[in-house]
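Write out the bound-state structure for magnesium ion.
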Amino acid sequence: MDTKLKKRIGKIVSWLLTFLLMLVICIPGLWVVLTGFRPNREVLAKPAIWIPEELTLNNFAQIFGFGAEQIAIPVPAYFTNSLIIALTSTAIALLVGMSGGYAFARFRFKYKDTLFLGLMLSRTVPGIALSLPVFMIWSRIGLIDTKPGLIIVYVALNVPFTIWLIDGFFRQIPKEMSEAAQVDGCTRWQAFWKIEFPLAKSGIASAGIFAFLTSWNEYALASQLTRSTDSKTLPVGLMDFTAQFTIDWAGMSAMAVIIIIPALILTFIVQKHLISGLTFGGVKG
Amino acid sequence: MAEIKLENVVKNYGKLEVVHGINLDIAHNEFVVLVGPSGCGKSTTLRMIAGLEEITDGEISIGPQVVNELPPRKRNISMVFQNYALYPHMSVRENLGFGLKIAKQSDAMVEERVGEAAEILGLQELLDRTPAELSGGQRQRVAMGRAIVRHPEAFLFDEPLSNLDAKLRVQMRTEIKKLHQKVKTTVVYVTHDQVEAMTLADRIVVMKDGWIEQVGTPMEVFNHPVNTFVASFIGSPPMNLIPATVEGAEIVFADTTRLPVPARLESHISDGQKVILGLRPDDLTPEGHGIIESGQKASMQLTVDLAELLGTETILYTQINGQEVLGKMFDPREVEPGESMSFNISLDKVHLFDAETQKSVRLG
Amino acid sequence: MSRINKSIPFWRREQFTPFLLLMPAILILLLVVLLPLLFSLYTSFTGYRLIRPDSLYNWVGFRNYERIFTNANFWYAFGRTVLFLTIALNLEFLFGLGIALLINKITWGQRTLRTIMMFPMMFSPILVGYQFKFIFNDNIGILNNALQALGLSDGAIPWLVDKQLAMFSIIFAEVWMSTSIFAILLLAGLFAMPRDPLEAAKVDGCNPWQVFRHITLPFLMPFAFIAMTIRSLDVARAYDIVDVMTGGGPAGRTELLWTLIARVGYDNSRMGQANAMAYVSILLSIAFTYYFFRKLIAARRYMGGAD
Ligand SMILES: Nc1ncnc2c1ncn2[C@@H]1O[C@H](COP(=O)(O)OP(=O)(O)O)[C@@H](O)[C@H]1O
Ligand SMILES: [Mg+2]
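---
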């Protein structure tokens, strides 16, 4: 009886803790999302209005330029820039990462460990520290405030981690698969595309999503390497709001929602593969 | 439909040489088994034949063609891997037909060949399953099916049975033998299991540390091992090897037990030579419990330390010269540990190796 | 040595293939990371200021380094950064472990919980910063509003303006964002944990705490090190959070190395000096990563991983 009671109490406590945890994780994001749908008047009200009296799409209409009042921040352009830059850099990083990850997973070669460590260390350079020389060089060769300028940087940013993940996924596929295919008449290239790639596909997709999110979310470099609507991305655009005299909390929240949505959807898609990729690459690596 | 020829084939991994210039001629339709302890370079040799490893030096040819620089797909061989390497994202049917599809054969042709292979191996019921839905033995069969659909010049097997349990292994061994009789092709088969080698091979290649120790039919390798390594590797339980010295017409052990020199070996040894006497357990039998009762014999009174009953025969553990020596008792009766028995040694079957070179004295 | 090596062109040779495959990765990293870093190393020995381009050739030797090493503000920022990282990483590990153990116990809705837990990891740091700037706002923030509504405080608590509270708020945001990576990997570790040693330990008479301390925890450590390594790759993302939330204020009390670099380099346009600081921050990051990477490799070996 006593142990039964103890167990029940333990269960209730762990449920309570979990509930609390979920609150801490979810409430900040939900609150921002909610604010995105409220008029500024209500957001700023004192005393606070807890239960929204009015929900509106006005904030979104405004930042996309459909609203009654024009706001000074060209969100549609930022959105397009973000999308183009993130997608292109992800695609390139995936190709480069697949090639490199395959090399690490399938070959033994000299300086392998050193090279791997070197790649990883290149990723540790803080964005802001890297931005200084890149800023100086990019302004000399005319890459400042261009999409390609940012794309190249993001590819470099994503390649090491993409290699880490993809290496892990290829390693899960026995080498003999590709060898059997080669004996069966494939070139190494065919063996890769017909056998190894399909087997690693979902893993590579998650590596891609991870790279996309890194580019989509990046701020430190973008804030220095972009200037205008030609290349400014959403995170940099978000900071435009704070430069104004009064912060437009509702508008900013609406913009935040736009940045969050891809993250939420993509996280949901990758979560399973991401975990296995990270652990596999790390533990069995 | 091809012979395979290896000439002075060398393999280096970086600075480490793992195969040291081996020579081997495999005849058309021959079943050759490479056998040796793990790490001796069997797989490496097979993979060089397949084209999966570069050849550091030497020459390999399949049929009339030197294949050194040909990629695997151009060698017209097929291979069965230890862990089967079935393509998990394809059905059995697709696995079987993959090679033909790659070679751009017509659908009708693929269909026909897959059907043929499925029939030979009894896979008809399984064609639409995926590898994950198959048992170990079935996967093994699919792997073999994948090898035969392409009608290759040669089959290469790398320890294909070592992932199966003992019973299935024996069953599949017979199937492989039958398969070879049905689909006449050259086969190179790698295993570390000497029983597999003995039962399957037309010719056995015994390897050790990257060298070929002996090539011969199972009978030759069993009856005339060229050195102590082959002698102890082939045969189960392994041959007893006892150090001794030749004194005149006798072989004398350190404990002064003596045996007459077998007549057929007299001319190969010299007085005072240090030798190793090789004696298979089958040739050390208690009086009245041997297989061959004729021929030149010697007898010895030995104490049995332990008897291991196997049913049709019993393995007897005894000692010669303070060293554990195994004998066999055919048509066995109960034996008490500690019992002293009179043993016959078939001198006709005794092997003598030079103690220094470890080589059979018959080789000079 | 043999005829094969002569007849196959070198780029088709087996030992060359991996380098060929790695070439794009190496090239792009050389171009975008290594080359700029060499350039910035050079710059850190000049008196380069953005507004005077010819100052790029003004060699000043170690003066930038002397200047930053004798500058109290730099050392404060440095110390604050190390402290910030130590506190944040330890909290993330502890919370992550707690969450992993908690979720491991719960069977119903586990997958959903796991997915929700991953969301913060995918948030843009700039968003996390904004989110907490909004929540911690002294006037309209939900936190102060809630505290006042519940009667726990009567005045507006200046979360982002008070010296100590601002640092706390920033660490809170950072931990909120990054705990999940620990939780997720430690949870994966718990899932991968073999049952036998646990049961053996129980049979041997260990109490739950001893089982955890001597069996579970050592098994989880490699997973913790993976998380640490991954985390140390992007610790500098905290720059984004700080930039949004406080911009290094109030009065430089939340100034980290990274915000200081941005201020000196871009706002004061002293590129030479900023690059000198940047080098310190790079070495700091590399030291963190290298340390955890070595631990990871050691732990991996201990677990019997491949080469
Ligand atoms: N890729 C490799 N790199 C370095 N050494 C290897 C490699 N593959 C095999 N070896 C070494 O070559 C030797 C022969 O290996 P292998 O042919 O696989 O032996 P086995 O006879 O067991 O099949 C072993 O000592 C092994 O360690
Ligand atoms: Mg082998």
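---
The CA atoms of residues 181 and 229 of chain A lie 50 Å apart.
The pocket of magnesium ion (ligand 2) is lined by residues B 42-43, 159 (CB under 6 Å).
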